[in-house]
Amino acid sequence: MTTGTATRLAGPPAAEAVIATASAQAAGLPTPPHLVIVRVGDDPASVSYVRGKAKKAGEAGLRSTVHALPEATPQADLLALVATLNADPDVHGILVQLPLPAHIAEEPVLEAIDPDKDVDGLHPVNVGRLWSGRPALAPCTPAGIMAMLAHYGVAVAGRRVVIVGRSRLVGRPLAGLMLAADATVTVAHSRTRDLAAITRSADILVAAVGRAHLITPDMVAPGAVVIDVGINRVVGEDGKSHLTGDVHPHVAAVASALTPVPGGVGPMTVAQLMANTVQAAERQRSGALGELLR
Ligand SMILES: NC(=O)C1=CN([C@@H]2O[C@H](COP(=O)(O)OP(=O)(O)OC[C@H]3O[C@@H](n4cnc5c(N)ncnc54)[C@H](OP(=O)(O)O)[C@@H]3O)[C@@H](O)[C@H]2O)C=CC1
Ligand SMILES: Nc1nc(=O)c2c([nH]1)NC[C@@H]1CN(c3ccc(C(=O)N[C@@H](CCC(=O)O)C(=O)O)cc3)C=[N+]21
After folding, report:
1. In whole angstroms, what is the distance from residue 199 CA to residue 191 CA?
2. SS3 61
3. Is 25 annotated in the active site?
4. Residues at the annotated binding site?
5. Residues annotated in a binding site for NADP(+)
6. Annotated catalytic residue, options 116, 118, 120, 203
7. Which helix (H) or strand (E) holds 7?
8. Which pathway is it part of (predicted)?
9. Is the pTM of this model over 0.90?
C-alpha cells in the first residue's frame, strides 16, 4: 500500500487475540489438543503453509504432528492414514492440506475425515451444519475473516456483503457465515456479468479470486470495507518475487478500511486453525463424557 486513507486492518494483532483465547481454553483441557496435518507432495507453498501452522500450534500450547507423504502416495494409503487418525483418541484435529496431487480425488479424502476432527470444516456434514445455521467447525479462512471483522468492530448485520469467488475453501463457506451473521450476501464468480456494478454495491467487499489487482478503485464504493484474501506471487519492477493480493493498492484511496497482503487474512487463517483444534478437542471430550454418563 503506498498512498491512501483507508485504515489498515492488520492480521497479526487480531490473530494474537484469537490465539490467546484458544490457548487459555486449551490450558483448561486434561491434555493439550493434538493437531495432525497431512501433506502430500512437495508443492513449495504447501510446505511453507504447513510449517507455519505447525509452528503456531506449538506457540499456542497445542501439540502438532505433520505427515509428509510422497507425491506418488496412492489414494488408498492416504485413506488408510485418515482412518488410523480417526480411530486414535489422542488425535483431536485432522487437516489434509489442499491441493492434493492430480491422481488423488479430494472428495473421498475429505469425506473420510471424522466430522468431529475436521478442523478445516470441509466434510459435507460440517458444510451442511454451517448452511443450516447450526454450530459447526467452519473453514479457517472464512471463520478467520469473521473473527477479524469482530476484532476491528466492523458490523456485519444488515450490511451488503459482496464476495468475489465461490471456492469450497473460501467463497462459499464465507457466504454461509455472513448469512448466519445477518448480512445480505451476493457471491460473484468468473461467469458474473458486470462485476464492477456488483462490487460497487458492497458495504463489505471480499476478494477471494487469486488474480493480482483484479479489484481496482472504480469497482469499490467510497467508504467500503475491503477484505483481500488473494495471495499472488508476482515479479515486481525490482525483478524480485513478492506476494500481492487481489486488490489494487489504489483502492486504499477509496475504501474506509483494507486488509494488507501479506499480514492480513493469512495470519487469521492460521489462528483460526488453532481455535478450531481446541473446539474439536472440547467437542470430543464432552462427547466422551456424555457416553460415560449415559
Ligand atoms: N489468506 C489466506 O488465508 C488464503 C488465501 N487464499 C488465496 O485466495 C485466493 C482464492 O483462493 P481459492 O478460493 O482457494 O481459489 P479458487 O481458484 O478455488 O477459486 C477462485 C474463485 O474466483 C473466481 N474467479 C476467477 N476469475 C474470476 C474473475 N475474473 N472474476 C470473478 N471471479 C473470478 C472463480 O470462479 P469460478 O468458480 O467460476 O471458476 C472461483 O470461484 C488465492 O489467491 C489463494 O491463494 C486461499 C485460501 C486461504
Ligand atoms: N486444507 C487446506 N486448508 C487450508 O486452510 C488451506 C489449504 N488447504 N490450502 C492452501 C490454503 C492457503 N492457506 C493459507 C494459510 C496461511 C497463509 C499465511 O499465513 N499467509 C501469510 C504469509 C505467507 C507467506 O509469506 O508465504 C500472510 O498472508 O501474511 C496463507 C494461506 C491455507 N489454505
Report:
1. 14
2. coil
3. no
4. 165-167, 231
5. 165-167, 231
6. 120
7. strand 7-8
8. One-carbon metabolism; tetrahydrofolate interconversion
9. yes
Q: What ligand has the least distance to the C-alpha of 121?
A: 2
53 catalytic per annotation = yes
ipTM, two decimals, is 0.98
All domains of the chain, ordered by start, with CATH? Answer: 29-114 (3.40.50.10860), 139-266 (3.40.50.720)
Pocket mutation for ligand 1, best pick of 140, 189, 244 (most atoms within 8 Å of C-beta): 189
Amino acid at 238: D
Instruction: Report the DSSP beta bridge partners of residue 163.
Output: 187, 206
Q: Which residue has the cell 468468473?
A: 190
Query: Is 240 known to be catalytic?
Result: no
- Write phi, then psi, for 209 (nearest 5 degrees): -120, -50
Return the DSSP state at 118.
Answer: B
Going 102 to 103 to 109 to 111, the CA torsion angle's sign is: positive
Please give the Cα distance from 221 to 231 (Å, whole number): 23
Tell how many helices (H) and how many strands (E) occur in the chain.
Answer: 9, 11
Q: Which residues pair with 40 in a beta bridge?
A: 69
Lookup: cell for 135 = 454450530
| pLDDT one digit per residue (tens) for the chain, 294 residues | 445 689 999 999 999 999 999 999 999 999 999 999 999 999 999 999 999 999 999 999 999 999 999 999 999 999 999 999 999 999 999 999 999 999 999 999 999 999 999 999 999 999 999 999 988 999 999 999 999 999 999 999 999 999 999 999 999 999 999 999 999 999 999 999 999 999 999 999 999 999 999 999 999 999 999 999 999 999 988 999 999 999 999 999 999 999 999 999 999 999 999 999 999 999 998 877 667 776
